[in-house]
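Example 4.3 (complexes with small molecules)
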Amino acid sequence: MALGRKEALRPKSFRLKRPRTARPLSEKELAIDHSRQNSPPLKPFLKWAGGKRQLLPEILKLLPNNIGDFKYYEPFLGAGALFFELAPRRAAIGDHNQELVAAYRAIRDDVDELVEALTEHQANHGEEYYYKVRELDRDGPAFGALSDAKRAARLIYLNKACFNGLYRVNSKGFFNVPFGRHAHPLICDEHNLRRIHRLLNRKDAEIEILGLDFEAAVASAGPGSFVYFDPPYHSPNKANFTDYQAGGFDESEQRRLRDVFAARAKAGALCLLSNSDAPFIRQLYGRFEIVPVKAKRAINSDKTGRGEVGEVLVKNWK
Ligand SMILES: C[S@@+](CC[C@H](N)C(=O)[O-])C[C@H]1O[C@@H](n2cnc3c(N)ncnc32)[C@H](O)[C@@H]1O
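Answer. The structure with S-adenosylmethionine bound is encoded below.
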């Protein structure tokens, strides 16, 4: 039961539907093929504000050919578009959003239970059900008693079913994004989740999932490391959603990030950063190479801000 001990929150008339069991996936379907000849690339399992899928072609053009030889660091992981595209063997990935980090760990450790819980969400999906699932975090002890997989399933379900795939919590830390009215959201993409599970458990790989602040997450990056920094974007007019969590990411955080970028660069790591094309950002990274790029943005609070926006990629190597 995906909702565990949540009977109290459910009206008596509310009945859960039993999902149908899917057939097991074959070895061929689960394979991760870097040549792309036999299987498609992995996909992010969430839609995340600031997700980098649109910018991937620009980023890939800049990467060194031997990127697979480097240890990959991504301390502002979000939906991890570049991480999944590269599917590195050695990596340290993380985010300070603990719900998000717990979801990556649940895919690594409990994928069967996660798929089962998501299949149940898929079978029961609807507006009334969405709000029942959304309310679970209002009941502290019962929410804390959910298994890691059920908690991760809740995050993935809310992300697929909510308005615009936003992650937003109120001042009490309760998820508060309204229902999304998508016609047929794919809530349980079992194929992709099981391939991600494979990637995170590969015998010949070493992938750490960290729930740390970005500075601590990249502290060991040096020669032989590649670090991709994709922070909440600097937004002088606050037109964009950069406030992922209480606390936000203000100018002093952008300065601290520049210092961390410079320190890792000095330690010998290849460093790449994306941010908005704003005078403040150009000034912060003035001594590094700045490559302007255009990206399509779907998540934006200001309708006039949709469409192409200027962004920059900052790199420390030639
Ligand atoms: C622009 S998003 C990353 C998007 C991601 N690259 C993708 O493709 O989906 C920025 C992420 O930084 C995280 N974050 C914000 N402040 C942080 C901090 N101080 N340390 C670590 N992560 C942080 C947010 O939780 C958010 O997931």
